[in-house]
Amino acid sequence: MTVYETALGASTPDTITLLGQDLARDVMGTVGFGELAFWLATQRRPSPGETRLFEAVLAALADHGFTPTAIVSRLTFLSAPDSVQGALAAGLLGGGSRFLGVTEDAGRFLNSVVSAHAPREDWDALALETVRAQGKTRIPGLGHHVHKNGDPRTPRLFEIADEEGLAGPHLSLFAAIGRVHPQVLGKTLPLNGAGTCGAVLADLGLPLELLRGFALLARTAGLIGQLAEELRNPVANQIFLSVDMNTRSVAPVEE
After folding, report:
1. What is the DSSP letter of 137?
2. Averaged over 161-188, what is the pLDDT?
3. More confident site: 240 or 146
4. Sheet with 10-11, edge to edge strand ranges
5. Burial level of 223, CB count in 10 A (0-12/13-18/19+)?
6. pLDDT tens digit string along 176-212?
7. DSSP string of 223-243?
8. H or E segment and range at residue 164
């Protein structure tokens, strides 16, 4: 008989185990959800400091108001109120290069530089080389369309990482990019929170391939909040009617 090994969940008629722990006795009511999510991804139990920093990232990414991901969730819920899973999935599917994907892009970008040049002491010099090498190519995590004078999440994430002794090479390089990029670009751009989250997750040693997954995990909670608010104070129909009632017919454009 073929055997499929897993260190995650498994059941017998009398018990459920998860990560080698008895789910009912050792996990439920004892392990917080953020801690468990980290543990599931790494198969090692995080320290209290790692849990605090990881959960700060989840909080930073949970909800940003009426973004496209939130609007599409509300509109899908309006169209199919019997399918909450469809509404959540619609919002999550919009997590890409413009929304939510920056976390993964920044983590991968910073890791590519750190892996090629670490260990390093002069982070500003490496950051200057990095920004110059990018030329006109956008640096993930640099700039924000709303918080042009500074993303309030960024200094707080750096602060928590410093307090817990978890600021590593990715955050060091990202901070240095924030200091030196005006010398190359001729303007000052903020380090955005999503990019900082990517640096934090990379420093925590989480799999680079899953960084967007953690952003989606956080945004799932935000989308549930959006749908809960839609139930209390619906706006999706107004959004739909605003478009539908202001549609103007024009002649097709010939290619």
Report:
1. S
2. 95
3. 240
4. 10-11, 16-18, 21-22
5. buried
6. 999 999 999 989 999 999 999 999 999 999 999 999 9
7. HHHHHHHHHHS--HHHHHHHH
8. none
Measured distance CA(136)–CA(133) in Å, rounded: 9
| Burial (CB count <10 Å: 0-12, 13-18, 19+), residue 33 | exposed
Residue owning tokens 């670490």:
118
**E-strand spans in the chain?**
10-11, 16-18, 21-22
Number of H helices, E strands in the chain: 11, 3
pTM confidence score: 0.92
What's the 3-state SS for 175-212?
A: HHHHHHHHHHHCCCCCECHHHHHHHHHHHCCCCHHHHH
> Is it the case that residue 19 has pLDDT exceeding 90?
yes
Question: How many residues appear in the chain?
Answer: 255
pLDDT at 148: 73
